[in-house]
Amino acid sequence: MKKVLISLIITLLIWGAGAFAFFFIKEYVPKQLKAASDIVTTEKEVENEKEVSQDLKEVIHNVQKLVVKIQLEDGSLGSGFVYNNQGDVVTNAHVVANTKDVTVVTADSKELPGTVIGIGQDTDVAVVRVPGLADTEPLKVARERKGEIGDEVLALGSPLGYQNTVTTGIISGIDRDIDIEPFHYEDAYQISAPIAPGNSGGPLVDSKTGEVLGINSAGLMEVAGSIGFSIPITSVLPLIDGWVASPMTDLPAIEMGGNEYAQEEEYSLEEYSNYLVQYFYESLNYGDYVTAYSLLGASWQSNTTYDEFRKGYLNTLAVKINDITASASDNTGTVTAVITAQERKDSGTVYSQYKVNYKIGYENDQLVIISGAGEKLE
């Protein structure tokens, strides 16, 4: 009887162990497999993020090649972009007002003659024909759709003479109506991307598709502080295509009202200095250390090699400007900013706040960051 009881107990134990093993395999192992799957998914998401980042760089590279700087005899500057394979460049009317012949500077620094073939009298758009750009593949234009609030965009141009500058932002408002004599801006986009004198006429581009959504107008900055505006390309396509098909033989005289469209040299050093520091951090956020380094003055560069400069920012993942102010005295600007830096440390990603001060000045007629210093805020 005792042996039978022992055998029964052993049998029950074996059954119990088998049941537990079945339950473990059925319930626990799938969870472990799912956890492994989550890791793979996370890795794929990271890979996708890298692909998106690479796509953005590709969009910027492709668009920059087709954005030009427009120079007038009086020294004023503007921007434009290649619109078709006839060599036509779209820009703002106030950039080329009351002139016929201009010089167009391409991304590879070629200077080409251009002729204004169409210009609006109450709409701030114009077309410049550049024979030297004929047969050039143009930028893609969003002909069938308008931008929407929240769309991520790129503003390209030559602010302050810095050619092929890219700033990022979103469309923060639509359907804005503004009058700046003699032009009326209807249904304009309000954008968060910083723009400055020289940006006028440059394209507003969808950062995902590379399509032109609008034409930037830096002239509006004087009216609305740091808010930028862009003319929807869909609103002016009939005008542009009309001039392309049938160029104007006589260009109208345009009376520019007030000083809202003052030439580049008439903008304040405070504005220049403020923008230059923003441009510096935009370049760092792109990982464009070459451009950021080029904005430094000769003294700073002589004390810091490019490799040292680049190495100093390799672990800075992103910088956000929380607050920025600028002042100027004589030919020197001072910029103070509070920034939040996302930094890679041994312990992981950390966010740190800094107060930075920059001295801005001219070297060889080019505005540069002469010196800078910062302190970490607790």
What does this structure look like?
The chain has 8 helices and 16 strands. A hairpin with a 5-residue loop joins β10 (203-206) and β11. The chain folds into 3 domains: 1-64; 141-236, Trypsin-like serine proteases (Thrombin, subunit H); 268-377, Roll (Nuclear Transport Factor 2, Chain: A), CATH 3.10.450.50. It is α+β, with helices and mostly antiparallel strands. 33% of the residues are buried.
Low-confidence stretches: 2-6, 19-54, 221-225
Number of DSSP helical runs: 8
Task: Please write the string of helix (H) and strand (E) elements.
Answer: HEEEHEEEEEEEEHEHHHHHEEEE
> Can you identify the CATH class of the largest domain?
Alpha Beta
Percent in strands:
35-45%
Count of all domains: 3
Strand order within the widest beta sheet? 1-2-3-6-5-4
Helix and strand content put the structural class at alpha+beta
Task: Assign an overall shape.
Answer: globular
Proper CATH architecture of the largest domain: Roll
Observed structural traits:
6-stranded antiparallel barrel; 8 helices; 378 residues; Nuclear Transport Factor 2, Chain: A
Secondary structure topology:
Elements: H1 2-64, E1 67-71, E2 77-82, E3 88-91, H2 93-96, E4 101-105, E5 111-119, E6 126-129, E7 152-157, E8 165-180, E9 183-191, E10 203-206, E11 212-216, H3 221-224, E12 228-232, H4 233-245, H5 269-286, H6 289-294, H7 298-303, H8 306-313, E13 316-329, E14 332-345, E15 348-363, E16 366-377
Summarize the structure.
With 378 residues, this protein is an alpha+beta fold.
